[in-house]
Amino acid sequence: MDAPSRQIVLASLPEGRLTTASFRLEDVPRPKPAEGEVLLRALYITLDASNRAYMQGATYAAALKAGDVMYGRALAEVVESRADGFAPGELVFAESGWRDWAVMPARVLQKRPRTQPLSHLLSVYGISGLTAYFGLIEVGRLKAGDTVVISAAGGAVGTIAGQIARLGGARVVGIAGGAQKCARLTGELGYHLALDHRTGNLRDQLREACPAGIDLYFDNVGGEILETCLPQMVVGGRIACCGSVSTYDGPSPAAGPRGVPGLLVTRRLTMSGFLVTDFNARRERALADLRGWVESGALKVPEHITEGLETLPAALVGLLAGENFGKRMVKVG
Amino acid sequence: MDAPSRQIVLASLPEGRLTTASFRLEDVPRPKPAEGEVLLRALYITLDASNRAYMQGATYAAALKAGDVMYGRALAEVVESRADGFAPGELVFAESGWRDWAVMPARVLQKRPRTQPLSHLLSVYGISGLTAYFGLIEVGRLKAGDTVVISAAGGAVGTIAGQIARLGGARVVGIAGGAQKCARLTGELGYHLALDHRTGNLRDQLREACPAGIDLYFDNVGGEILETCLPQMVVGGRIACCGSVSTYDGPSPAAGPRGVPGLLVTRRLTMSGFLVTDFNARRERALADLRGWVESGALKVPEHITEGLETLPAALVGLLAGENFGKRMVKVG
Min CA distance, A102 vs chain B (Å)? Predict the structure, then answer.
């Protein structure tokens, strides 16, 4: 009999907000690698809000269809290799989906060192940490003395970004949902201020928090919070567009914020979208900086880890509902 | 008896689209300059779509209120001077409003040379020409081989911008309202293609006109046309946000385009707003370039001039309705 494996399939595309009812856990035979392929055992599967966006159509990646194994990125271990340059026991980062075992062509795998804890490879040394770093430094042109506002400040990117902004000499204001997250941002991560958008008076809170205006807005959410920040930008302000979480968990992208493009003109604002991969050439330098800060204790790495492949659907639904603080992932291996 | 003058007052703020009923022509005594002031006789008053935006609240300039003399910029002649450095007969550019005669403090006046024709000082050598120049070259980082799309291509800025883009080696696609304007863009101004947005299938027209995507979009209008261009931008494309005419002639700014910020992220687009005054330091260089092109015949200067102070209200209403081709102004002196 074939060795067993499990996978989670997107049983149906969600019509409104995503629920766990959209997913189905399946037992399948463990796949076998062909020439040039590698058999992987997933150790950690990382969750990103953008996973939901793939259900809306082609965005960052190709669109997901009902019946597909759910898209997901994993830190995985090579168990069997039929490809040159890969040996059992090596660690790789792979878009291997929501499954225990996967066969992947060797050419799409990215090797990773066996850093401890392994989870850091998916948080601070992974896409989240590098996104925070490049978004602030390259796209946002962070400088000392800036007033920086970061939305989804309690998320995987925001928890790192706020600390990098502070290390860069900025005054850092976070926006997050809920008093508890706000308390952690200022208490544990050194945010100068944290504003709770759920209390409903964000405009006034921002005005009080940033009396001279916002120099740099690191936007993880788009939508209403972007609309609220826009009129409070200084002349010549920069908006680093990292993501648009507020628009992912619905049928399709909504209308953009009021003030675009009007306020961009009158305030001479620049909004720049970016992907972390745009900065691959400077990746090693960024990782060295991040490692230095983590090892010295200057940069804390909040992670939110659950165990078991079967917890993935609830983890993604919870991520979209804003339940997590820091990088969310599932330990599967 | 005092010498006479005439002025046009904004009698009431428009509730929907602007009509001439919002204005009132008044006979008033000619003003007299005090110490440090200058008496001006307006020669040409320039019309800009942004004049309408001032009725929505503070934007580029302070908001207009009912009862105010209508805001306007003029090329004017000094008739009497009680200020050092200004002599009768000199030409100045002034925010002197919709009136025949005005008294202004000397410090807010900008001297202008007596170039012929004088109207060029308000079109190609004025805000419109410099806006086209800096918007393409500095903000849009125009380069040879770019596919450039320009909206409101038949307007004061668009008629100049399209020609500058062509002179810079770009393939230039204009968007304008009406077949007649489109014919003039390609026939007289050297646009490679002109698309009529009034025929209602702009998305398909753009796709056919720009099969490899839009590298640089010079946006004069915002709104639906911006929304249509956004998904057709290349990865890393640039959007120079010059104005948002589509949103001016109504009660207040509408929701922004779908795709902001989502498409900015996935396509790594940059949207930058600008004002022509941001580039004052490079103004002389720009004027020298523009003068060279005009004198060699490489750059044509469409102007739409009516005569008489009393034609100003209809001229602004017509401008907002897209009636003009090229720079619209009224000869009053």
Answer: 27
